[in-house]
Structure formats: structure tokens, C-alpha cells
Amino acid sequence: MITLLKNAKLIDPAHGKDGVKEDIYIRDGRIIAKPGDSEKINQTIDLNGKIVMAGAIDMHSHIGGGKVNIARMMLPEYQETKRYTEPEAHICSPSCTHNATPSTTDTGMRYIEMGYTAAFEPAILAINARQAHLEMGDTPMIDKGGYAMLGNDDYFLRLLAGKADQKAINDYVAWTLHATQTIGIKVVNPGGISAFKFNQRRLNLDENNVHYQVTPRQILQSLSRAVNELGIAKPLHVHCNNLGAAGNFQTTLDTMGASDGIPMHLTHIQFHSYGTEGDKKFSSAAAQIAQALNSNKHISADVGQILFGQTVTASGDNMMQHLNAKIANPKKSVIMDIECDAGCGVVPFKYRDQNYVNALQWAIGLEIFLSVEDPWRIFLTTDHPNGAPFTSYPHLIRLLMDKSFRNDAFAKLNLDAQAMSNLTSLNREYSLYEIATMTRAAAAKLIGLQDRGHLGVGAAADITVYTDQEDKEAMFSKPDYVFKDGELVVKDGKVVKVVWGKTHTTKPAYDAGVEKGLKDYFDQYHTIQLDNFKISNDEIAQDGRNQVIDHYKN
Amino acid sequence: MQTISSPQNVLATCPACGLLCDDVAVSWQSADAKPAVTLKSGKPCAKAIAFFSSPLKTTSPMIAGKPVSLADALGRVAELTAAAQSPLIAGLSTDLAGFRAAYPFAQKIKAEMMHMNVQSSLRNTKVLQSTGWQTTTLTEVKNRADMIVLIGTDVVSHNPRFFERAVWVDDAMFTDPSARKIVYLGGDDLDVAPGLSPVGVQPTVMPCATKYLPEVTAALRALLQGKTLKVDAVAGVAVSALDQLVEQLKQAKYAVLVWVAKDLDFPHAELTIQNITESVAILNQHSRAMGLALGGSDGDTTVNYAHTWLDGLTLGEHTLDTHDLVIWVNSFSPDKPAPIVNKPVIVFGHPDTVFNTAPDVFIPIATPGLDAAGTLFRVDSSVVLPLKKVRETALPTLAEVMQQLEAKLA
Fold it and tell me: Could you count the other beta carbons within 10 Å of the beta carbon of residue B211?
């Protein structure tokens, strides 16, 4: 069975193709070279020069696991806002349930309708990984994967405080990737979640966790080195200390230097780019952050753009979310300490364009997007649902691609915030090629998905077809066709076939002796058996769904 | 034919209460004998022993009390569901696989769903949806808690091994376990003996009837907020004693306030739970404290969570009156039979379920964690554990039955 997509206009940055007219052949879920004349073409779709990109990949989106489900449980009112009229955060297909906490079914459906074919849960608590995979397993249409959180777990902190050698750390990191079935390692507020359990309320990069007497910098050094030495593609995913705090940009700049040149990815960097200038002691440090990103080639970042409207923030950073709970809207929140492993904080927010801080946060995110030069190192995210629901991506893409649209939106903001932003002086408009880079080619490269994010021969046939339109929001809201692993699953923005996607992991080798120390630790201090901590492939891949793929390459 | 294939030993996970102890060794000397149920600590747990010693019965599906084939029973189920305008799937005592199968079935037949523990679960849900809360989990309690206040509960009536597994442990990372301070605040007919420390220190018991806990917890919350009470006692509890409790809570390095929603069985108990959770929130402004909701049974946590992610909303409460067919699920316990109602009843149940009135259809199903593998959430959330199959039976799982049923309905 061969499908031919005729007269495609390829935007495929992985192969440097920008609007190249080509035909694409698909067989058995893969893109193939042009078959011989004797081979039968079973299905031909003439695209008449429509834009063709690989399926988009969301490299940071909270789609499954404890804190997402707590948000759903805590906020039944979000399910009752289906005719929500605030457009900023709610641009999506007509069938969208219009809320920041979609069910697993809605999550998969809304993603594929926009032409996204994979999403990665960036904050899987190791102890909660089974739940995250259960939820992702019930998310149809797209591929899934996740990053396991380390760096606040007592096992790691005991190793680090005990001056364990790097090999012991590396083995533990590799073992964690296996046990949790994840593809990357994340650290959230390095050392801070643990410090909060000892009643510390803030932790700076070179400040000691009072119990372990180790600093966030040491944690970053140890974990980034482990990830690097194990040869995992995905650089250490770093949620810096001092999330959301005025003046935190200095922590962020310092963090870039903490790994001694080893690659790191700083996530939702918008929330970490705040200065203290002006009457309100809250200002944009986007220029400093962007400049540092431009010069520190070992650092990549995703933005975590905020968009106005109701949403909910769900983070592992219970230390900072406990502070944020004071400004919850509606006024409720969940803060948890979890299993000597990590924590979580779920706080609903309503971002308002007339609120000085919110308006400036919006501008800061866009300033970063427009000032970072290399689209291979800056990624399009809203930190779903923390900055806005992922369904607002088409709107965000238009803000990046359409200067007058952006400036019109800016002119409606809180006036004091306008005075503190240089956004209108930034004339850049993203091209389709740059959008395709940040949402496809670069995302796949960052995570280590060799056969996704591009349209070369051998790639998985995750393909999105758009009609080029002046209104980029309309264009990216409703693709003409989406193919998932070669199957036509979306036509004219509507799902026509339900599929289940795959689970992406990486499994570097480790010394089996690592389990000796872990077994002793679990028997003595934990409340479950070590064997039950580990998740098998069979638990994830059931009934032909969610097949586990190991991307580790020696 | 239902037999144990051969004598065997399994390190099992016990679903008999919300703690999901996964250190339960179950072993058979012979196929006919009851298994030996051994815990790591060497101490017995009545709930675990009862669960794993459940007799292996050959029970056939039945229509109106008469044995029939599974196919015939499912045929009758299909007829009844087709005739129903407004079915209710209740009981819902099952594991994750069972719920994942029951949810699309409910969608297909347009049934509402309700768990047998809905009333106690909703007490917690209402607090979560009103103010939220600040809570912790068992491993944190085990390693950090230096003060544990049990409010309106002894916990052990629900979770027999709470003290053994999370309190009086040999070693903890951040505190001396034997020095933990235990306080019982209120409750009826409590067993406070487990609160005795290994070095012989008695727990502090502040007696007050459960029905007075709304007043007493409100007083505790007010005192924590720094307010002055112009009385000497609240519902028989001396304010001076509450003052002392407040001082101890503030001094604690990691205080844990425990409740069991099922034990707070009075109108608007959610407001009492909120007094507890808001007391924790006040403490956390300067020191560290956390809440801990315990109890849990019959897969309630699992079913609530899975419904939330599949549906977007938590499971709610429904009255039997407004439904014309009741489909009852009790996988875990034979002692949770369907309610007696004047309408058709279908039971997917434990094979040992005894009926006073035979339901229209009874289909015996495998018990997860005993007859079948499975998955459950622990009561404190976050931790999800695999259940093991520890013996061979011919009984189908709920999911298998639902799949067959779906084929019949298609």
C-alpha cells in the first residue's frame, strides 16, 4: 500500500528545504523514495502546492500525571466554560472543550487537529511515572514521552552529599530512565523542593540546602554531566531556581554557566526573565536573557509564553507555588510533598491584559522569541497549561509571524507595562521555515527522535498539510490533512480516524549493581518494594497501543 | 474447573485497604489449604489475611438465581441495558483495568456512574474544589513527621498497618521515629493502643465525640490564626489543651494532620475537613505541616482518578430513584452487595457475594490482586502499584466481561 502526496510544497528544515516542490511517497507508515514504475500507487492526493511540514512536536506540555489530574479535579468550573469568549487563550477548533485541563481524549484530539503528532510531559515524578503513563496511554492520536524529575529526591541528594563518584550518579540516572520509561531528565528548582520540606522558602544557585549542604549549582553540574556522559540526546531539562520572582534573571544567567559548557535546556524561560526596575520593581530582562542565549551555544530554551485568559499552573516547584498560591484565581490551590521524591503545586491563574505584571509577562515572552537568533535553540511553548493552554499555539504563531497583529495586541495592554517593553521596536517576523524549525526539526533533534520532525526518506510519516494563508492563526488552527504514521487521521481540521501513537524512551546501559544501594534504601526508607517502582514495557504498550520505542544510540 | 495450579509463593500487593501494602507474602502448602499470609514485620493484618484467604468457589453466572452460561447471562444483560432509559453503574468496586472497560461501556449505554464510597469521597472532593489543600504522602510521613495528629479517627480501623509502616519504624532519614508525638483529637470508639510509642510513651488523647468535631476543629483553626476564644472549653475540650496543641504544632519540624473522611460521617463534614486543611495552611506560613487523608477501599481512589482523566470531571453522586436499571460492581469484597431496589439489578460481583434477593443477573468476576493482575492507586495519591495474580481461577475479569458485552451490544 503506497500513498502519494503529489505537488507538495515542502518546508523541511532538517533537510534545508524551504518551499521545495516535491512528491512524497508513504508505505507502511514511513516516507519512502520514489518507487519503481512497476509498483502500484494505491492512493494519490494532489496537494496542489499546499504547504507540507512534518507533524509538530510539543517538547514541553503537561499532559499527564498527578498534578495535571489534580488540576482537573480541583477545577470543575473549567469544564463549564465551553462558550468562553476570551479569545487570547482559546483559539482552537470549534469542537474544543475550551479549558486548560482537557481530558486525555480531548488532549489528543486537540493536538492532532492542529497538526501536532507528539507531545512530551516534562515533569514526571519518578514515583508517579506509572500514573503519567496511564494518562498518556489514554491519550489518543499522538506520540507521547516524558522527562523524569531528579535532583530533589532524597536518594540523589544522599549520593551527592555523600560525595558519591560520578559513575554512581550516572548509573542512578540511567536506571531511572529505564524504571520510569522516560526519554530525558528534568530538574525543577534544583534542591529547592527538598529545601522547602526543611522549611526553606527560597534557594539561590549557590545557597545550601540546609540538610544536605549541597547547592543547586552542584546538583546541576552532577546531573548535566550524567546526562552528557550517558550519551542521552536530550540535554538536562532545567527549571531554574526562583521561578516567577522579580529579579530572577540573574539566577537564570548564572545557571547558564553552571554546567561548565555541558548542554542544558532552560525551560519556560519567560518565567525566569524578570528584573526589578521601575516603580513596580518588576521589569523585563528579556534583552539580557536573549543576549546570553545568543552567546551561550550550549544552552537551549523554550519560552513558556503566557496568553491572557483563565488557566491553571501545575508545577513540581512546590516551594515557589506555595508563594504563588497567595495570588491564585480562583482562590484555591494544592501543594504537596511527595514520597521523598519531589512535590507539586497546582495554582489556578487568570492572566489579564490590564494587569501590569501579566501584560509585561506577555511582552517578555515575545521579546525573547524575537531576540533569540537561532530557531534551533528556542522552542515554541506555553508550558501548557501554565502560560496558556496548548490550544492557543496558532494564535501565538501569528503573534510571531505578523508584526502589525502583534503591535495591535500590544497597544491594548496595560499602559505602564507598554512603557516598560521594547516589543514594538522589534521588527522581526518569523518565517514559516523558522516556525517549522522550532516546532518540528529542532524539537525532534533536541529530544533525540531520529525519525520524526522531518520529511526525509525513512522518516515516520507524521505529516501535516496546510493551506498557506495570510492569517497564520487560521492556517495553523486547521490543517487540510494530518497523517499519523502514514494514516490519514485529520481532514479539514476534523479527526477522521482514531489512532494511539507511540511511547518514546531512551535506555542507556547501567551497572546492575546500582540496584543494591537502591534496594537497601527502599527497604529501609520507602513504603513500596523497589520492584514495584519499575514500569515494564507491557504496562505501557497494551492492545497494540503506545508501543515503547527506545531511542538510545550507542 | 477452578483450582490452584500448584502450591506457590507470591510477594503480593494487598488491595484490602487504601495502604496497598506490597510486602505481603502469600504461600500455599497445598492446593486445598488456606494460604499463609506473612508480612515483613511478622505481625498479622486481619484485613490482608481475610482478603487472601477468600475461599475459592465455583460460582456460575445466574439469571434470577438460576445457574446459566456466561453467554446467556450476558445476553440477558444486553436485553436489560437495551430496555433501560437511564441506567446507573454503581458500586464500581474495581481496579484500573476494570474501570477503563466500564467507562466506555457506560458511555455506550448512556449510564451514569457512582462509586460505593461516594459519600465519604465527596467530603474530600468538596474541600479540594473549594480551597484546595496542602498534603503529604506516606514515605514523607515515615521519614519526616515528628508530630502526628489524628483527628476523629484511629486510622487503624481502616488502615491496620499505618503505625507499623509509617510511624513506629526502625529508622527514618530526618527524625527519630520512636520520639514522634502522637495526638488523638476527638472521635468515637477509637483504638488508641497503636499510638503507644516503642519506648513506652502514651499518646495524648483529647476526647470529644465525633459530632462535636466541627466546633473543636474550628476552635483549633481560630487559635492557630492567633484569635482569642472567650470560653474555657469547646465541646468539652479545654481551650488550654488546644492552646498547648497549637504551640506543639508550631514547634514541630514536620507536623501531619490526619483524617479519614469515612469517620467524619455527619452533615457538612467537608467543613470540618476544611478546618483541618486550613489549619495546615496557616502552619505552613511559618513552619512545616501537611495534611494526610487516609482510609480508602474498593478502588475508590483509582476509580475517581481514572474517571477524572478520561472524563475531565470527578465522579459525582446520583440517587437510585432516578434510574431504571442498576448495574452493581463489587470486585473486591463479597460483603458489599447491591442495594435492594424495586427495579432490575445486574451484578458483576465477587463470587462469594451472598444475596438476600437474587439479582436479575449475577456474573461472578475475578478479584484483582487475587484472581487477576491489576493496578490500583494508593490512598495518598501519587503512588500507583501493580497487583499480582496469586492463584488460578476460571473467573473472567470485569474488563473481559465488558469486552464480550460490548461485542453483544455492537
Answer: 15
